């Protein structure tokens, strides 16, 4: 089943067309990586898919009409209530979603993201890796179908990044779908089932990491990235 089907999306800011007739499908249970250089339109595309921004042209079909209640979005900033502990933050976010979690359920959720021992620590005092894990716990407290993550491991050390990737894999094992953006090609290669590669407001390549590597005759995704984003060499004048 497809969760999202977008067709012919176009978006203009002032006079500049930043998304140019983009078609995109997100299937249930996938981990999809949206990649491409800075400023090519990834965030604009995500904002349109989430219904935050209207496309100037094109259409988006969702798997259910109340799709917004079954979405989670985690931006790079961590959205905690200052002065409250990790556990209290989780309880506050669940209240926002009108979900009542018992003390035992709160503890289970904290343990699921390796924060079982740090529930009483003020959220903003946690390490960056712990904060990112808590942010995942609070943004997914309502068990959403589709989770959108903006550079989920940006700024994290290798172990903290690994732990976030494990949480993302657990979500998909739990029948959730993840769409994430990243500039870390090694991460994309190990995590994504499918890559959507954008450049200049369009999709220029799409497929499983191994398939794209083979099709383009490159050794890895880093090389693919360089190949697909290279500017044409200046032609000598004869
Ligand atoms: N609200 C806005 N008003 C005007 N221009 C905008 C607006 N939002 C985005 N843009 C422009 O649209 C283009 C695409 O921006 P977008 O943020 O979608 O790129 P991106 O691929 O997500 O970049 P990054 O990887 O740096 O996050 C950029 O040129 C940006 O300056």
Describe the structure in your own words:
The structure is a single chain. The protein has 238 residues and is α/β, with parallel strands linked by helices. It folds into two domains: 1-62 and 144-227, P-loop containing nucleotide triphosphate hydrolases (Rossmann fold), CATH 3.40.50.300; 79-142. The chain is built from eight helices and nine strands. The chain has helices at residues 42-49, 86-96, 103-112, 128-139, 158-173, 185-191, 209-215, 221-229, and strands spanning 2-13, 16-27, 31-35, 57-62, 71-74, 146-150, 177-181, 194-199, 202-207. The strands form two sheets. A six-stranded mixed beta sheet has the order 5-6-7-3-8-9, sandwiched between helices. Strands 2-1-4 form a three-stranded antiparallel beta sheet, covered by helices on one side. Helix 2 (86-96) runs parallel beside helix 4 (128-139) and helix 4 runs parallel beside helix 5. The chain is globular. The mean pLDDT is 93. Bound molecules: adenosine-5'-triphosphate (ATP). Adenosine-5'-triphosphate is lined by residues 13, 18, 36, 38-44.
List the SSEs and their pairings.
Blueprint: E1 2-13, E2 16-27, E3 31-35, H1 42-49, E4 57-62, E5 71-74, H2 86-96, H3 103-112, H4 128-139, E6 146-150, H5 158-173, E7 177-181, H6 185-191, E8 194-199, E9 202-207, H7 209-215, H8 221-229
Parallel strand pairs: 3-7, 3-8, 5-6, 6-7
Antiparallel strand pairs: 1-2, 1-4, 8-9
Helix pairs in contact: 2-4, 4-5
Bound molecules: adenosine-5'-triphosphate (ATP).
Adenosine-5'-triphosphate is lined by residues 13, 18, 36, 38-44.
Keywords: ATP-binding, Hydrolase, Nucleotide-binding, Transport
Pfam families: ABC_tran
Domain ABC transporter: 4-225
